[in-house]
Amino acid sequence: MSALRFFDCNARIGRSSAPRPEHLLDPSGLLAEMDRAGLERALVYHTWSVEWDAKAGNDALHKEIAAEDRLYPCFAALPSATRELPPPREFAQQVRTLRGAVRLFPTQHQFALSEVSCGHLLDALSFERVPVLIDIGQTNWREVGEILARHPALNLIVLNTYYRIDRFLYPLLARFGNLYLESGSYGVHRGIEALCQRFGAERLVFGTDLPVHEVGGPMALVTYAPLPDADKQLIAGGNLCRLLGVCD
Amino acid sequence: MAADTFTQACRLGQALQGELVIDAHAHMGPWHNFHVPWNDARGMVERMAQLGMDMCVASPHIAIGPDCREGNRQVMAAAEEYPDRIVPYVTINPNYPEAETREEIGHWHSLGRIKAFKIHPACHSYKVDGPGYGPMFEYAREHALPVLSHSWAGDSQAGATLLSRMAGEMPNVTFIVGHAASSWSMIDEACKEARERDNVLLDLTGSQLLYMALEKMVERVGAAKILFGTDIPFIDPAPGLGRVLMARLPDDDKRQILGLNAKRVFGL
Fold first, then answer.
1. Do B35 and A22 touch (CB under 8 A)?
2. How many structural domains are present in chain A?
3. Angle at CA B237, nearest 5°, toward B235 and B239?
4. Could you count the other beta carbons within 10 Å of the beta carbon of residue A110?
5. I need a surface site. Which of A106, A145, B239, B265 has the fewest CB within 10 A?
């Protein structure tokens, strides 16, 4: 196998409320770790957008990675009713133009994922084909299914899961073709192999959760998977490239 | 191997060649609250081969759950089927009568099959220094055997500090603190104890592979006190292996962690 071209869907930058001393806080630190580990590109969100203010964090993210062609923006989104961010169609178009994605933090940001709350936003993101990422710790599998039932064209990537999820996950993967799973946290024994047999390698997207977690674990899950090289490359980066509309 | 070959192997998905890799914390079989594909001994051995893992020391899930006797029988059968791959732990459930525990130990002793013990005070809801474990520690002391205990941050049944205190009372028993890298508070507590006791070792098993945690542990206690473990098939072993392969450590440290320490501790 030649080296895979990894594109991490789950990395962050920015000063945070309670960092570990070894945490990488800025783009240069993240890029240095990506070089060490062998990651080509990363989709990055900003800690400010989670822990302080979505708009200020999104603006900081745009500014801090503008000159870095290996880093792609992942903007925090909010329900449109409070008008803290641009109107949904405008916001979704801006994200699409920047070849970015959107991440939802409904628990951290205290909003509902219901149709009343997020319907307009998710309609706009679906229309613009902007991928939406959500940490399973910010929602639950029932809500994931409800969102996809209401917005069947939405490309939804669920992040930061773990090894006890198949009984929740498999029915949803079978029902919703636009549901994707971050591979790095999916620690099921031979889980990638089993999932690919049932649903195809197109449903997994490589992610690390840098700088909280190590790269080596997520990377080994892909490189040591008993899959054809082409399938490994889909997971390592091809699927995310397709979802973002950028070249592989 | 040349420097950085471990990292390169991980990047390319290559099984290590000429290196010893022993998983000191393995299980076997299904578990009640989640789906575990290919969870039998054959499924584990296939996965180990893909990753270049030579051996694992295993206690079946049923042993740390409802029936240690059935689990011990299962792992002994697996070790007979895969003698070069699977090393059995004898698992003890302290909630059953002392006579039964002595009988179980005596049975495997008579067959010369006891290499190490595994205990799970959390699953068995029993404090590690309680009398139900007495016959096991008695045997471990007599035969200078290692004991792997499940442990966790804030674990009232078998925290690292309590295990270390017991290690102080049994200097010829090697206490392996399970899941010693599972959180930063666990790392702090476990490293403090491992630094103070020669016979306290730290197991890396866990799903949370915290950034730079392994390097910090080596800095605090040295590579000789850390054992590679993965929980296979409770968790896929690839992440745990990848974490060690790609660590910012000298190759010789990785060799100790991946296999040489376990070879010494388990007498393999």
1. no
2. 1
3. 95
4. 8
5. A145
- Please determine, for the modelled complex, whether the ipTM score is greater than 0.90: yes
Question: Which chain A residues contact residue B241 at CB under 8 A?
Answer: 220, 224
Q: Please state the domain extents for chain B.
A: 5-11+20-266
User: Per residue, what are the HEC states of B207-249?
Assistant: CCCECCHHHHHHHHHCHHHEECCCCCCCCCHHHHHHHHHCCCC
Verify whether the Cβ–Cβ distance B211 to A20 is below 8 Å: yes
Which domain, by its residues, includes A99? 6-244
Q: Which residues pair with A8 in a beta bridge?
A: A42
Choose from A2, A190, A198 for mutation: most chain B CBs within 10 A.
A190
Structure tokens at B185: 């508070």
What CATH number corresponds to the domain at position A136?
Answer: 3.20.20.140
Cα B7 to Cα A30, A115, B189: the distances in Å are 18, 47, 29
Q: How far is A169 from chain B (nearest CA, A)?
A: 11
> How far, in Å, CA of B151 to CA of B201, rounded?
12
CATH class (in words) of the domain with range B5-11+20-266: alpha beta
Assigned domain for A173 exists? yes
In a domain, A19, yes or no: yes
Tell me if A1 is assigned to some domain. no
Portion of chain A with pLDDT greater than 90, in percent: 95
Tell me the C-alpha distance between A198 and A211, whole Å. Answer: 32
User: Quick check: B211 and A221 CB within 8 A?
Assistant: no
State the pLDDT at residue B1: 40
Chain B, nearest residue to A38 by Cα: B11
CA distance linking residue B224 with residue B216, whole number of Å: 14
Distance CA B266, CA A15 (A): 45
* pTM for this model (two decimals): 0.97
Is B239 close to A189, i.e. CB distance below 8 A?
no
pLDDT of residue B3: 43
Q: Flag whether residue B236 sits within 8 Å of chain A, measured between CB atoms.
A: yes
CB-based contact, B234 to chain A, within 8 Å: yes
Whether A166 sits inside 8 A of B34 (CB atoms) is: yes
Tokens, residue A1: 């196998």
Tell me which residue of A148, A195, A221 sits closest to B35, measured CA to CA: A195
Examine residue A120 and state whether it is found in any structural domain, yes or no: yes
A214 in contact with B, Cβ within 8 Å: yes
Q: What is the mean pLDDT of residues B140-151?
A: 98
